[in-house]
Amino acid sequence: MNRKNHTAVTEFVFLGLTNSWYMQLFILLFSSVFYMASMLGNSLIMFTVASDLHLHSPMYFLLANLSFIDLGISSATAPKMIYDLFKKHKVISFSGCITQMFFIHLFGGVEMLLLIAMAFDRYIAICKPLHYLTVMSPRMCIMFVVAAWIIGLIHSVVQLAFVVNLPFCGPNELDSFYCDLPRFIRLACTDTYRLEFMVTANSGFISLGSFCILVISYIFILITIQKHSSSGSAKALSTLSAHITVVVLFFGPIIFFYTWPFSTSHVDKFLAIFDVVLTPFLNPVIYTLRNKEMKVAMKKVCSQLANFKKIS
Predict the structure, then answer these.
(1) CA 223 to mean position of chain CA atoms
(2) DSSP code string of 92-131
(3) Bridge partners, residue 133, by sequence
(4) Distance CA 278, CA 150 (A)
(5) Residue 89 gets which letter from DSSP?
(6) Three-point CA angle 39, 83, 170, nearest 5°
(7) What letter would DSSP give residue 85?
(8) What angle do the packed helices 58-84 and 21-51 form, to 10 degrees?
């Protein structure tokens, strides 16, 4: 049956974050500042890695790709949220809601695989340094990125394929500021228990499984680092701590969304803002503050841009 024949809902209404005008103003300023900062920070990382020959290595290649994904994650939800803070009636079309969910799960799936690839890169560099250049070849790095995009695309398409033709004929209010799959499914005019379980299990299993893989790999790396007491080990530990921080910031809210069995709307909204606005900003900050090579390269790029502006 065609979806139009049994669906009366053509748009969804966001209930937003809060009804307080002062809180909306604070969230507007907070989100705008951190969204722009994350856009500039991640763009600067990508430009720095591309322009500095000293950063043409597997670790920085994967970092540049991670920055690109962070741009996508924040841009999939933050602009709409910031725009809606000016509006009393916050709406999104049916196709717009589907599109937003598609990109959220696409970028989220890709980032999970990229973080695993970055953990593998650190594992080879620290635990098997003599084989690093052989294992982490340019071809291997490209294969990691391509595989991440393919798996992220499959993850997103498979989930949406089950929900895009659901009948929507009654309530159309989403207690959120963006389209998330669990709340979207609950509005359908049919029994969706099995579908909700499938979606929750799918995203929950992928996020929790990826997190466990990362934790195990970092434990192996930390054990290897403890066996050495050189300056190189100290540098490796500094880089590794940045990776672990990013992993916890990214996976913490996602695992809570899909594995916590109780309804906690306010907590979900807080974590959602953290995940789509603050985490993409913190990623470049964490990697640049804990990495001397990146800080030196970024200062060089900034000085070159400043000199270019003076000349022009």
Answers:
(1) 28
(2) EEHHHHHHHHHHHHHHHHHHHHHHHHHHHHHHHHHH-GGG
(3) none
(4) 27
(5) S
(6) 125
(7) T
(8) 150
Question: Rounded to a whole number, what is the distance in angstroms from the first to the last CA of the chain?
Answer: 61
Interval 187-228: pLDDT, tens? 888 888 888 788 777 777 888 888 888 888 888 888 887 776
The tokens describing 297, both together, are: 């390269």
Give the global pTM.
0.87
**Token digits of residue 192:** 């969706």
- Pull the structure tokens for residue 292: 């001397």
C-alpha to C-alpha distance for 72 and 79, rounded to whole angstroms = 11
Amino acid at residue number 169: C
Q: Is the CB of residue 38 less than 8 Å from the CB of residue 281?
A: yes
- Total Cβ atoms within 10 A of residue 156: 21
Contact 164, 3 (CB under 8 A): yes
Neighbours of 230 (CB within 10 A): 9
Contact yes or no for 220/234 (Cβ under 8 A): no
> In a 10 Å sphere around its CB, with 0-12 CB exposed, 13-18 middle and 19+ buried, how is residue 67 labelled?
buried
E strand spans, 2-141? 11-14, 90-93
State which residues of the chain have pLDDT below 50.
1-5
CA distances from 290 to 68, 91, 237 (A): 20, 41, 10
Judged on CB neighbours under 10 Å (0-12, 13-18, 19+), 259 is middle
